[in-house]
Amino acid sequence: MTSNMSFPLPSGGTTTMDYTVSGTQTWPGGTYYINDVTINSGGILQFSGAAVVYLSGNVNFDGGATIRAYNSIPGNLKIYHTGTGSFGSSNANGVTITADIYAPGVDFAVKNNSVLNGRFIFKTIYAKNNLDFYFDTALSPLYYNGTSSGAQLVR
Fold first, then answer.
1. Whether the Cβ atoms of residue 99 and residue 74 lie closer than 8 Å to each other
2. How do 30-39 and 51-55 pair as beta strands?
3. Global pTM value
4. Every domain of the chain and the residues it spans
């Protein structure tokens, strides 16, 4: 790609909200417009159908957190971040995310023993110990540069 994609939040009748997740919350499939999300320690945010989430703020983890796509299929949860910010916490242990996330202006952070399932595009990724990535080949291509596509590991 020659430039970053942009996903501005729609204007008009759409309301953006802040959410706090405690315990297990199951949201129905659909489209969500969210400013900030906090997932409390041990919190699980899961979906009962395919969903698209547009974020404009931060996603904060207070300890371990889980974000799970419908049927644990990453393509069933598309998360687009519309700006800059943070996703996670440098103190979060045991984070598991199953999704397709496009957040090129966002810094991602976790501490220990975390798992990312799907496809993840962040500005930076910080992990202290044991971060496992599992790329879902059904989401291919990982990137497109105008002439070819494929996966790329950036260190």
1. yes
2. parallel
3. 0.83
4. 17-150
Residue with tokens 């996903």: 7
- The candidate with the shortest Cα–Cα distance to 87, out of 72, 65, 71, is 65
Read off the pLDDT of residues 142-154 as tens digits, 9 standing for 90 and up: 554 444 445 555 5
Question: What token pair was written down for 40?
Answer: 């409390």
How many Å apart are CA 88 and CA 144, to the nearest integer? 27
- Please say whether the dihedral angle defined by the alpha carbons of residues 85, 90, 95 and 98, taken in this order, is positive or negative: positive
- Dump the DSSP string for 53-82: EEE-S-EEESSSEEEE-GGG-GGGEEEEE-
pLDDT tens-digit profile of 23-44?
999 999 999 988 999 999 999 9
Nearest Cα neighbor of 124 from 87, 98, 95 is 87
CA distance 71 to 66: 14
* Integer CA distances (angstroms), 136 to 26, 36, 94, 142, in order: 23, 27, 20, 9
Residue 106's DSSP bridge partners are 85
